């Protein structure tokens, strides 16, 4: 077996590979850029080599710099993770020339299947049904418009070397095709060093289902069943699960056999994924093959018990697959949630900064439940603007789908992240959505269910009453602590009463608290709740039992109550005495400042272009400027007709959240 491998990647996937390598007794080498000098993968590896400045196109995707790191450390093999150089045939060729093993497929398979244009042509030749489109190279924006009209709107503009939603746009008309072509081309060049673009018909209302394959160098191949990846935003997967709630055994077997046959047709070896779109009648169409490990591979590992990274290493070393198709059964159900540094309350725009608090739920595995968290960050670390916004992948497993979802809900409730915007509230909301829990979702789920973006959740009355009971119990604990303060004047003892008014989500609920040594009995209107907890004031996470059921709340102190976050809701919860409640009802509400005549930067980022000048009359929807962060370009548009009176930023400027870019008359 290899004695030392280099991981040509960063973040959570580098950490993931290091874990398996250590389990196998293999030494590891990390590479890092200026921005990642103190990153977790650098701390975890046995050795680390600096390879350049923060931008990926000056460090992680520069083949010569990676090859120098291999030479310095004497690594015998390289695991590329996903993204960066993982599907770069020139990198595989350079490794082969240097006598270093590539923990991935052969160069020929990467060229045949890793390139989306070539793979679609090969799939057609193999009589695999594909989505209509134009597989040739596109010259410029006008050529893209011409092709889009020939294919028929809507179309998908995609980077040939793309992945992870980078270099991908949907266009519904000529103007969007022009803009989408240029943005996709720029993102592809920055992320992959390859700006080739192709166009295909965008199939509405599809499911995105993929098959995991594993092949060795001796002609053996198996499929490890499927993953449902339909919960996507901007073509970037958000939630995955295995197996799919939609497939039947017949369709699963047909997709699996076709995937293995396609892989073996190009002499594939290593782990790979064949992606399909599946319509409502379970007809499936080949999309692409990813010749690498997928971000969502943990859910497959949880239902099959196969360590895919270990098998990739063993295949690269020349070993034969230890399993046959009949050995690969589906055991239970697994869910994966991608925790992103994206603010759902600001249109999911990237958020960067320091993680002032990062406390994932405890990882565990029992015969009836499992929690796993793949991450590349730590408390006190920085989320950089230069790379993908993923913070962690939280996974749960249980014997069936309903239990796996419930485990995920509890795990998300217990996940503490502070200091940056993140999508934990949105993830929690999805897991409670009836369309998701029914399994009846498509890739249009987020677009259809959150057409105006995510604005938080209005909790049902059942949850409101449970939270009100918990808040009353916690407030009583805090009041008792405050009543015991030292240094009081004589005859000024404070008595904590039992009658309160809990104000939350525009409701005022009368509460009575009767405490004993084991907890408290709380009356909320006509309902009575038994609350038990060891929570003490100052703890940011409250783990309670309410009527014998777990309730996990994220807590911070507010005057007269708490800020409570639960299942996608973020709300102030005030606990008043009856007299305080009367007076609070008379207080005027604070009015937000008027920013209607300002264009504010919605995220920390780099101004790429400014499309208007002072004095220009602009129309609703017109592009004003483009801001880039975390490898994604975001076009900021006018919300109404107006005139530009002042421009405060220029191309190349780095801006913070809410910096004023321009002003209007």
From the structure above, extract its key features:
globular; 17 helices; 665 residues; 28% helix; eight-stranded antiparallel beta barrel; nine-stranded antiparallel β-sheet; alpha+beta
Topology of helices and strands:
Layout: E1 4-7, H1 11-23, E2 27-33, H2 40-44, E3 47-52, H3 63-73, E4 77-79, H4 89-98, E5 101-102, H5 107-114, H6 116-125, E6 133-134, H7 141-151, E7 155-163, E8 166-171, H8 174-192, E9 197-201, E10 207-215, E11 221-233, E12 236-242, H9 249-265, E13 270-278, E14 284-290, H10 297-304, H11 308-317, E15 333-340, E16 342-343, E17 349-350, E18 353-354, E19 357-359, E20 364-365, E21 370-375, E22 382-383, E23 390-398, H12 401-413, E24 416-418, H13 424-431, H14 434-438, H15 445-449, H16 461-483, E25 499-504, E26 507-516, E27 519-524, E28 527-533, E29 541-546, E30 549-558, E31 561-566, E32 569-576, H17 578-584, E33 598-600, E34 605-610, E35 617-618, E36 623-629, E37 632-637, E38 642-647, E39 654-655, E40 660-664
Parallel strand pairs: 1-2, 1-4, 2-3, 4-5
Antiparallel strand pairs: 6-9, 7-8, 7-9, 10-11, 10-13, 11-12, 12-15, 13-14, 15-23, 16-17, 18-22, 19-24, 20-21, 21-23, 25-26, 25-32, 26-27, 27-28, 28-29, 29-30, 30-31, 31-32, 33-40, 34-36, 34-39, 35-38, 36-37, 38-40
């Amino acid at each position: 077996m290899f004695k030392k491998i280099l991981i040509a990647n960063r973040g959570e996937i580098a950490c993931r590979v290091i874990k398996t390598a250590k389990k196998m007794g293999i030494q590891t080498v990390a590479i890092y850029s200026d921005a990642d000098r103190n990153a977790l993968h650098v701390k975890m590896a046995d050795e680390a080599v600096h390879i350049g400045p923060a931008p990926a196109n000056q460090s992680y995707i520069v083949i010569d710099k990676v090859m120098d790191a291999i030479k310095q450390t004497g690594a015998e093999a390289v695991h590329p993770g996903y993204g960066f150089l993982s599907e770069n045939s020139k990198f595989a060729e350079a490794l082969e020339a240097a006598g270093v093993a590539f923990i991935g497929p052969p160069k020929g398979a990467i060229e045949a299947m890793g390139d989306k244009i070539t793979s679609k042509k090969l799939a057609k030749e193999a009589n695999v049904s594909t989505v209509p489109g134009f597989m040739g190279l596109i010259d410029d924006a006008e050529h893209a418009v011409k092709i889009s009209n020939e294919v028929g709107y809507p179309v998908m503009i995609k980077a040939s070397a793309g992945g992870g939603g980078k270099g991908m746009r949907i266009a519904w008309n000529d103007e969007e095709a022009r803009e989408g072509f240029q943005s996709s081309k720029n993102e592809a060049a920055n992320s992959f060093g390859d700006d080739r673009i192709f166009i295909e018909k965008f199939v509405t209302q599809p499911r995105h289902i993929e098959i995991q394959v594993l092949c060795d160098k001796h002609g053996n191949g198996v499929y490890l069943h499927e993953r449902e990846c339909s919960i996507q935003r901007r073509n970037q997967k958000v939630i995955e699960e295995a197996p799919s709630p939609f497939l039947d055994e017949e369709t699963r077997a047909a997709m699996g056999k076709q995937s293995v046959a396609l892989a073996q047709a190009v002499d594939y070896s290593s782990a790979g994924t064949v992606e399909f779109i599946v319509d409502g009648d379970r007809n499936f169409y080949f999309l692409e093959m990813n010749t690498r490990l997928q971000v969502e591979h943990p859910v497959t590992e949880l239902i099959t018990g196969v360590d895919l990274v270990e098998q990739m290493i063993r295949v690269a070393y020349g070993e034969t697959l230890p399993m046959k198709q009949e050995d690969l059964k589906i055991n239970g159900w697994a869910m994966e949630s991608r925790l992103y540094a994206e603010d759902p309350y600001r249109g999911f725009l990237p958020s960067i900064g320091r993680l002032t608090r990062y406390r994932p739920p405890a990882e565990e595995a029992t015969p009836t439940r499992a929690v796993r968290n793949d991450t590349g960050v730590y408390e006190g670390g920085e989320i950089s603007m230069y790379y993908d916004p993923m913070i962690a992948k939280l996974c749960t497993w249980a014997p069936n789908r309903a239990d796996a979802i419930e485990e995920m809900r509890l795990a998300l409730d217990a996940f503490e992240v502070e200091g940056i915007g993140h999508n934990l509230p949105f993830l929690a909301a999805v897991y409670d959505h009836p369309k998701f829990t029914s399994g009846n979702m498509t890739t249009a789920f987020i677009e259809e269910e959150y057409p105006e973006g995510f604005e938080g959740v209005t909790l049902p009355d059942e949850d409101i009453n449970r939270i009100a009971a918990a808040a009353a119990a916690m407030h009583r604990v805090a009041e008792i602590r405050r009543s015991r303060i030292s240094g009081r004047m004589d005859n000024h003892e404070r008595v904590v009463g039992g009658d309160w008014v809990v104000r939350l989500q525009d409701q005022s609920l009368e509460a009575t608290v009767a405490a004993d040594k084991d907890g408290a009995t709380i009356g909320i209107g006509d309902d009575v709740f038994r609350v038990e907890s060891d929570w003490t004031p100052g703890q940011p996470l409250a783990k309670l039992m309410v009527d014998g059921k777990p309730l996990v709340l994220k807590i911070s102190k507010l005057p007269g109550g708490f800020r409570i976050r639960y299942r996608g809701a973020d709300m102030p919860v005030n606990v008043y005495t009856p007299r305080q409640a009367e007076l609070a009802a008379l207080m005027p509400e604070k009015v937000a400042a008027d920013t209607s005549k300002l264009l504010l930067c919605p995220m920390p980022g780099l101004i790429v272009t400014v499309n208007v000048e002072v004095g220009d009359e602009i129309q609703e929807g017109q592009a004003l400027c483009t801001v880039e962060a975390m490898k994604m370009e975001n076009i900021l548009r006018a919300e109404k007709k107006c005139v530009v009176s002042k421009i405060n930023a220029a191309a190349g400027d780095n801006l913070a959240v809410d910096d004023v870019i321009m002003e209007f008359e």
